[in-house]
Records
---
Amino acid sequence: MAERLTTSAARNVFYGGSAFFFVIFLGLTAHSHWYMATSSTDASTLTPAVARGKHVWEKNSCINCHTLLGEGAYFAPELGNVWIRWNGNEDPAAARDMLKAWMASQPSGTPGRRQMPQFNLSEQEVNDLSDFLEWTSRIKTQNWPPHTSG
Ligand code: HEC
């Protein structure tokens, strides 16, 4: 056995190690996609209204202030679980009304609170947003975030 690492042995460790971990990386990537497609996302309830609601979300750049499942800006509350926070699982109609009232009453003007702009959304747009936020709240996130508050 050589007493020290030869150049060719070092090269083999490098290429072998790279190939080995690249294969593991590919496997984990495939597993993530498989898990998202089969376990965490409920494609059967992905209605056109949910897709339209996502469009409203994107068109108005809600993500510039809010996070959705942790992604986005940390200026305003997380909204991936706002549906649960507003008890939409128990009483979806009340949560829908709440969102309608919330969107209509911004900015609140309350001193000392961060303000959210008025977006002047149509009734249809707010309804679609409700569908989108309700659907998002059902994504299985392995109990993340740990608290339902903001
Ligand atoms: C300029 C920043 C900003 C943008 C853009 C923004 N928001 Fe907000 N939003 C806020 C702030 C700040 C609050 C918290 C206000 C408060 O508590 O008085 C808030 C609160 C909310 C809440 C209530 C959350 C809770 O748990 O009480 C909802 C729902 C909401 N926003 C929806 C939206 C939607 C939908 C959009 C896009 C159409 C949007 N926001 C875009 C700043 C923003």
Note: The CA atoms of residues 3 and 9 lie 12 Å apart.
---
Amino acid sequence: MSVKIIRCHPSRFDALVAFVAEHNPQPEHHIGYFGLTPEDIRLSLRMFNWPFDRAARLAVAGNRIVGVLAADIDKELGRAWLYGPLLTLAERASEAAHSAAVPPATRHSPPATTWEATADALYSAVAARLPAGIREHEMFVDTANVNCRAFAERHGFPAVGEWAIYFITPDRLARLPEATADDWDERFAGQLEALHDRLFPRSNYTLTYMRQEWAEKGALLLVVTEGDRLTGYFFGRYEEDSGEGYVDLVGVDETRRRTGLGRRLMLAGLSRMRGAPGLRQVNLSVAASNAAALALYDDLGFVRERDMIAFRRAIQE
Ligand SMILES: CC(C)(COP(=O)(O)OP(=O)(O)OC[C@H]1O[C@@H](n2cnc3c(N)ncnc32)[C@H](O)[C@@H]1OP(=O)(O)O)[C@@H](O)C(=O)NCCC(=O)NCCS
């Protein structure tokens, strides 16, 4: 079988979405950025910050898609996110020859039919088109995606963190007790900024962003206080289009831990979300090393869906 690397012509877009939807849910293929359902995948690809036909390359065998790699970019951050490589080829030439079931005498697979070689060919094709100024490449894959982990290692991507992905469904939410917390109050801006910086020093969420999402898009920014003192906060949101809610952050002052505030904040946020029309599930992700948070989410009945690993490679220009 010979495999060619080609651009993703718009006429192949639906076939690409179907290919990703078929394989991405499987842990051994899973790439975090794509999403799982055809709708999510279509949306994530349509939201790219640059023209998709420049950003993506397909591996095809005849007319059939057997692999994809795309890269979304943020020019300001100087970062590219690799959507892939997602390939349904065998890992090594020997396996490829074996799976092709050809007679042993003629069993010779050209290197380009293997996962490894095809992934590398896709990566060089995609990387060659990236605009100047991209200084980092990132990957986010299931820990069971051994091919991508080996790819990351081969290309010098250090691992930068492991994450557990959790979700909870409305039936489980309905069984949780009610709890309350206060809505955002500007009086606590200084304290929240200080607490947030201490607990999540590298977070993408700034106080300005959280306030804006709260004021303009109905995100949940909840606090618990003792008199004038802020002791904890919760930030989450509900996306009506997808029917999915997200717990983005929950944090409790270091001196007030293990007194039930984390649970209360989670229950208060979830109590607000569970009435949302069309809610399908509430998601969250958390560092796999965060024992306190893992225990809290397990205890609330969240289901641990996947374990993911993130890689980031610095690019010399
Ligand atoms: C995670 C966090 C919010 C928990 O807050 P908390 O107020 O200490 O938690 P609670 O007192 O409500 O504990 C609720 C349950 O969580 C679990 N838990 C909380 N802290 C724990 C710890 N250090 N070790 C083990 N389990 C823990 C327990 O099951 C606990 O129930 P229990 O006390 O009856 O055993 C808090 O540790 C925190 O702010 N961490 C830093 C920020 C962070 O990592 N947030 C989560 C990622 S967004």
Note: The chain has two domains: 4-157, 167-307.
